[in-house]
Amino acid sequence: MRNVILLLFAFFLIQCNKSENQHEIKADLAEVLREDKIASPTAIMDLEAPSPPNKISEKPVSDNQQSSSKKIDPISKKIIKNGEMTIQVGDIKKAQSLVGEILKKNQAYIQTEKFNNIETEENLNLIIRVPHQNFDALINSFSNGVGSVLSKNISSNDVTEEYTDVSIKLANKKIYLEKYRDMLKSASTTKDILEIQENIRELEDEIDISEGRLRFIDDKVKYSTLNLNLYKEKVRSSATSKIGFGNRFGDSLTEGWNTFVGFMLGLVSLWPFLLVIPLFIFLWRKWKFRRKK
Questions:
Q1: Are 85 and 124 members of one domain?
Q2: Cα 67 → chain centroid
Q3: Is residue 172 within 8 Å of residue 61, measured between CB atoms?
Q4: What is the DSSP string of 92-106?
Q5: How does pLDDT run across 215-250, given as a tens digit for each residue?
Q6: CA distance 210 to 138
Q7: CA 5 to each of CA 1, 8, 16, 18, 19: distance values in angstroms, whole numbers, following the listed order
Q8: Beta strand segments in the chain, E
Q9: Which residues of 154-169 are buried (b: 16+ CB within 10 A; e: fewer)?
């Protein structure tokens, strides 16, 4: 009997422990389910509700943040050098040959060449492009070995600020262009597509202009420009400068006669007026006489 009571008591304790464990499991499961119900709406919203897109007519707001956070490489100094020189020489051809040797030595080339030959002088005008690192050496070579320098004007223009400004704006425009292209892929209406395409076209035009400006500045910085004028004064070749007084007097008489002949020929060319004027005077006097009578 005693053994039976002990067995029943042991069975009762076992059942109590099982019920407690089941209650704990149910409580833990309920708590987990409650936490899932609380967390699940936000999780679903995060997955199914992305941030609304920007208006098509406006530029993406995040672009400014991206462009400001994006680091821009430092730009080296951009200096444009230009010069003008006028050199008097004794022989244009020899001076031109010497200039060609100096240009070859300094890796320069002639962009424009213009020659004038008038009664009193000869002029050879050359527009020369030279690598910026050889500009000073080229100027010194022309100053010392070509002829007598009549005038020289050298200038330097710092365009670093302009170059930096154009580069930054160009980078921002490229970011905007990529954003609009991404928006074009997701556009659903014809109006939105046309508006995005117009914005893309405008940005592409602005990017082309900016890139062209940067290329122009790079070319001017890389190659300096020199306007070189080779000048030769001619000795007067007039015939009157080589003859004596008697011959000059005869030439003056001849020139006077030629002038008189030219004047008479000019009068002859006015013969219609010489006929009309006397006729007009005759008719006017006749009319006046009749009126008095």
A1: yes
A2: 23
A3: no
A4: HHHHHHHHHHHHHHT
A5: 999 999 999 999 999 988 877 555 445 556 666 777
A6: 32
A7: 6, 5, 17, 20, 21
A8: 79-88, 109-117, 121-131, 148-158, 223-233
A9: eeeeeeeeebeebbee
Which amino acid, residue 292? Answer: K
Do 171 and 216 fall within a single domain?
A: yes
54 within domain boundaries: no
Q: What is the CATH number of the domain that holds 85?
A: 3.30.70
CA angle 127, 132, 136 (to 5 degrees): 80
Residue found under tokens 């920007």: 54
Q: What is the pLDDT of residues 117-132, one digit of tens each?
A: 887 888 899 999 999 9
- Which residue type, as a one-letter code, is found at position 76? S
Q: What does pTM read for this prediction?
A: 0.52
Look at residue 287 and tell me if it is in a domain.
no
What's the Cα-to-Cα distance from 77 to each of 33, 42, 167, 172, 224, rounded to whole Å? 66, 54, 14, 22, 15
Last residue of a domain, one of 131, 157, 183: 157
Total domain count for the chain?
2
What is the domain range of residue 88?
Answer: 80-157
Longest dimension (CA), the chain: 190
